[in-house]
Structures are given as C-alpha cells and as structure tokens.
Amino acid sequence: MSDSYIKIATIKEIQEPESTSKRVIEWMQQNNYIESELSKSGLGLDDLAFKPSSNHVEIVGYDENITRLNACGVEFKTGRQVSNSLAFNPLIKMICKHCGENRFKDFTPQEFYTDATPPDKLKLYTVMFKLFEKWEKGETASLICPICDQHSNLDEYEIEGSICLTNFEMTFWNWPDLKTEFMKDLQDLIQSPIKRMNGHL
Ligand SMILES: [Zn+2]
User: Residue 91: inside a domain, yes or no?
Assistant: First the structure.
C-alpha cells in the first residue's frame, strides 16, 4: 500500500521553532486531536509521531479509520530543512530577487517528463539538490541566476510551489484532507505564514 502525507510548514524560518512546536502539540493534545505520548506511528518503523486521538475526526470531517495503519501519526520537525524536497521539480517557480524572473522559466512539463530537457538546461535544476543539502547544514548556499547573472542566497528566492525552506514542519501520515477551519487555527497559533503540501510516496 502506498502512503500519503500532508505536510504543513512555515514558508520561511521562524524565530522560535521549538516553542512554536510545543504550543501546537499542546493545543492538539488538549483538543484530543493527537495522543499525549509519542509512539512508533511515523512512516519508518522506528519513527516517532503522535497518533490520532479521540477527536481527530473533527479536523478532517470524516472517519477513515486511519488508526488501523502503522503510519498514522503526526510528526514534528524543527531543524532547518527543505520541506517536501522530494517533490521538487522545475515546474516549481524560483523567482530571482534581482530580475524578478523564474529560474526555470524555459522548462516545459513535456520535455521534463519525457527526459528530453537538454543537459545544459537540466543542470539549472539538478544543481539544486546539492544546494538544499548545503542550506540544511547551515553552509553558504548561493547560486547564480541564469537570466541576470547575479548571485543570491537560496533563501532569498521567492518559491512558488510545494517546497518550503523552513525550520518548522508537521507531517500528517495518511490523514484525509484537513479542514480549512483547522488550518486557520494553526495559522493563528504559529503566527507566521504556512503552506500545506500534499503528497504520496
Ligand atoms: Zn535574476
């Protein structure tokens, strides 16, 4: 069976990821959306997450009986990371702060998905994964814009699509889609813009 996920992350790094995480966890526990203790309910057999609790159906709208699954927990991460980087592709827009152009403006889905992108062009995309690693380690991650030839740091790009350069991420394993109301409550608690990213493994 394949696993699905919903990731919710702040679109930028926040000042106090630890205390934000604590605040969200406590609020979700008080409302009985998640259990009070961590258990092995993440994706990997030993990955710790909070299992859905008695009221979790309130925030999804209908009962899919997800607690029967091994991976059904909510996982919290507060380290610096490129959230949802596995889903990164050149159809995501990366806007340069100098010229306002999208680094991947010349990519087309047809070329990309049929492996027909010319190698020189493809490199604009493939170099990104190394940069993600550098950024996550706190190293300098700067790149040259192919359009205006100017340098920027990775986190100076405006990214339109399903990844976040973040230090606060929640992953809901195999949960049905979350209610808008819940997203609003979360937004109020986190107090920094968030993004929801759905995916499958
Ligand atoms: Zn540029």
Answer: no
Quote the ligand 1 centre to 96 CA distance (angstroms): 5
Q: What is the largest CA-CA distance in the chain?
A: 55
Q: How many domains does the chain have?
A: 2
What's the pLDDT tens digit per position in 33-91?
A: 999 999 999 999 899 999 999 999 999 988 999 999 999 999 999 999 999 999 999 99
Question: Distance, CA 108 to ligand 1 centroid (Å)?
Answer: 19
The pLDDT tens digits for 156-190 are 999 999 999 999 999 999 999 999 999 999 999 99
In the reported structure, the alpha carbon of residue 34 is separated from the centroid of ligand 1 by a whole-number distance in angstroms of: 44
Q: Which domain holds residue 71?
A: 4-81+163-200
Cα dist. 53→26, 109, 165 in Å?
13, 41, 30
- Ligand 1 centroid–CA 105 distance in Å is 11
What is the C-alpha R_g of the chain? 19
